[in-house]
């Protein structure tokens, strides 16, 4: 069984009358890229801040590396955080900024470590220009380098692609995948499911502070895959006909009245013909396709709205 290195139970944060996160329950296993998806104000940053040890929960528990943590526990030190603004000194270089953080951590062998990190995130280690002149993408990559300074076991990235151009997004995506391949567990938030789906292995949908659904990439893609939804009287009698007469093998029986067919080589009318020839009732047959964003909007009760 995979090892859960983050587990939250009933995690809640109440800001006066505003309930930002309510009863969040989930586990993140070692090596996962866990995507937290939610629209503006859904509670993503608040949840990540609690897991990163930046704010105290109002209620609930956080278990890190199999230990229950309360307050400023050392287990929080094993988390590398990039939440909201990285807060660099604008008039210093990337190296100088990382050096200041490294000094505050009391790190030894600073130069070598910083050079390695700058190289890892794709920044020129000898670049003396001030961070204020960096592009947004470069600043984000520097933010990730800063989060990695303490050699964490988990990286928490809050909307790391927000405001980046397509090239910047692609660079961050490659960096996330590279870190993950090297063994890093990553918790990442976004409000764009399509983008998150290019890296995440599992997702939690958060809406108005509540986790609505936890879904794996395979399940999500299956939900959004083109399919024919076939409603019948008795699926168990129909399955042999689909398999033998139409060579349909990629299907899922949801109930004895509902079959989802993912094989795309067969037309709906061929399915109807075979079933009618065999005197089987067909209650409905529908082609179904939805995008990841439609799926997300449907789950958060905003189906039909456009997404920008
Ligand atoms: N320090 C705070 N005091 C009071 N309310 C807060 C505080 N921080 C967040 N909130 C409220 O909690 C809710 C969740 O905010 P949060 O920043 O966690 O959402 P988010 O999903 O990160 O949104 P965004 O996509 O805009 O970053 C919002 O209604 C927000 O106004
Ligand atoms: Mg936020």
From TrEMBL:
GO terms for MF: ATP binding; ATP hydrolysis activity
SUPFAM superfamilies, per the entry: P-loop containing nucleoside triphosphate hydrolases (SSF52540)
SMART domains linked to this entry: AAA (SM00382)
Coiled coil stretches, renumbered: none
Domain ABC transporter: 6-233
Signal peptide: none
Protein name (record): ABC transporter domain-containing protein
Source organism (scientific name): Virgibacillus indicus
């Amino acid at each position: 069984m995979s090892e859960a290195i983050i587990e939250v139970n009933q995690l809640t944060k109440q800001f006066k009358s505003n309930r930002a996160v309510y009863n969040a329950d989930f586990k993140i296993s070692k090596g996962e890229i866990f995507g937290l998806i939610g629209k503006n104000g859904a509670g993503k940053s608040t949840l990540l801040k609690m897991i990163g040890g930046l704010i105290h929960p109002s209620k609930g528990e956080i278990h890190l590396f199999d230990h229950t943590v309360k307050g400023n526990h050392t287990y929080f030190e094993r988390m590398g955080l990039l939440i909201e603004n990285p807060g660099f000194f604008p008039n210093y270089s990337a190296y100088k900024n990382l050096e200041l953080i490294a000094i505050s951590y009391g790190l030894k062998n600073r130069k070598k470590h910083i050079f390695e990190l700058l190289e890892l995130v794709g920044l020129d280690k000898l670049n003396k220009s001030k961070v204020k002149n960096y592009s947004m993408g470069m600043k984000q990559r520097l933010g990730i380098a800063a989060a990695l300074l303490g050699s964490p076991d988990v990286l928490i990235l809050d909307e790391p692609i927000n405001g980046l151009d397509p090239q910047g997004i692609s660079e961050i995506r490659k960096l996330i995948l590279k870190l993950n391949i090297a063994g890093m567990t990553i918790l990442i938030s976004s409000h764009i499911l399509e983008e998150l789906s290019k890296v995440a292995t599992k997702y939690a949908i958060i809406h108005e502070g509540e986790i609505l659904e936890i879904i794996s990439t395979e399940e999500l893609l299956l939900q959004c895959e083109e399919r024919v939804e076939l409603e019948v009287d008795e699926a168990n009698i129909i399955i042999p006909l689909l398999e033998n007469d139409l060579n349909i093998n990629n299907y899922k029986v949801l109930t004895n009245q509902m079959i989802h067919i993912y094989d795309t080589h067969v037309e709906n009318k061929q399915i109807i013909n075979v079933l009618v020839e065999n005197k089987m009732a067909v209650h409905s047959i529908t082609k179904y396709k939805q995008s990841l964003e439609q799926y997300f909007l449907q789950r958060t009760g905003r189906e039909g709205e456009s997404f920008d």
